Amino acid sequence: MSSVSVAFRYLLSLSFGLTGGAVFYLLGLPLPWMLGAMLLTLICSVSGLPLASPKSARPAMSAIIGVVLGTYFQPELFANVGEWLFSISALFVFIALAGGIGVSYFHFVGRMDWKTAYFAGMPGGLIEMVLAADANGADSRKVALVHSTRIFLTVMMLPPLVTWMEGAAGPASARPMMPVTLESVLLVACWPLAAPCSGACCITARYLMGPMLLCAVLNLSGVLHDHARRRCWSGAAQVVIGTVIGCRFIGVDWRHVIGVVS
């Protein structure tokens, strides 16, 4: 296959991913840029369209997601941590029970291997669980399908109900372009600096965890404050990651996809 043909397949895949994300965003669906990109690319993949997975861009996109997650660690987050002890304790109990039931179900009933069953059954964010599953040798395709189905069955049922009860809210208005600041430069520098170091320290999912930990340290130390750009970066990264996941179903039969979801 020529380099021109491969480049065309990459662009076609990303075009479908961006289109799916935009449609989900306009419909007001949760996690639109990743779920939309993944769903439309998945449909195109199993339908036999000439797609190719832009895997080379995934480490950078994973690092961006890590940086975005790191920006949520604020000094104020730990100001009232003493008041959360009961809630945190109850949360640990819930995670242990829900995770144990979920992992056991996917292993014994869903016939998944233990690694895949763990990342599919444990409570967690879609992006984080898929990236962690991929880094630890689990079947990230099954993990993505399971958590996507969970989101569709739970989260997607709530926004229409809330909107109906409280009144419709229009889409977010466009934000003006913002000047480049020192803080934005530091945010961008987090992933190329942290990823190699985390790999040397044998941290799993280094492209996600390394930048997240470094950005969290910079936030908690008060070095970073400006996080207005994280939504734009996160959306772009989610499109690429969703496209990569969707392209993993190239050559997969529809019955396999339906079997995992059901």
Topology:
Elements: H1 3-26, H2 32-46, H3 58-70, H4 85-109, H5 114-121, H6 126-135, H7 140-153, H8 158-166, H9 182-200, H10 206-220, H11 230-247, H12 254-261
Task: Describe the protein in words.
This protein is mostly helical and 262 residues long. It has one domain (3-166, 180-261). Helix content is 68%, strand content 0%. It is built from 12 helices and no strands. It has helices at residues 3-26, 32-46, 58-70, 85-109, 114-121, 126-135, 140-153, 158-166, 182-200, 206-220, 230-247, 254-261. α1 (3-26) packs across α11 (230-247) and α4 (85-109) packs across α5 (114-121). The protein starts with a helix and ends with a helix. 37% of the residues are buried.
Low-confidence residue ranges = 168-180
Query: Rounded to an integer, what's the Rg over CA atoms?
Result: 19 Å
Tell me the distance between the termini: 36 Å
Q: Biggest β-sheet: count, sense, barrel?
A: none
Number of helices: 12
Number of strands: 0
Structural class: mainly alpha
Order of helices and strands: HHHHHHHHHHHH
Could you list some keywords that capture this structure?
single chain; 262 residues; mainly alpha; globular
Summary?
The chain is mainly α and 262 residues long. Helices cover 68% and strands 0% of the residues. The chain is globular, with a radius of gyration of 19 Å.
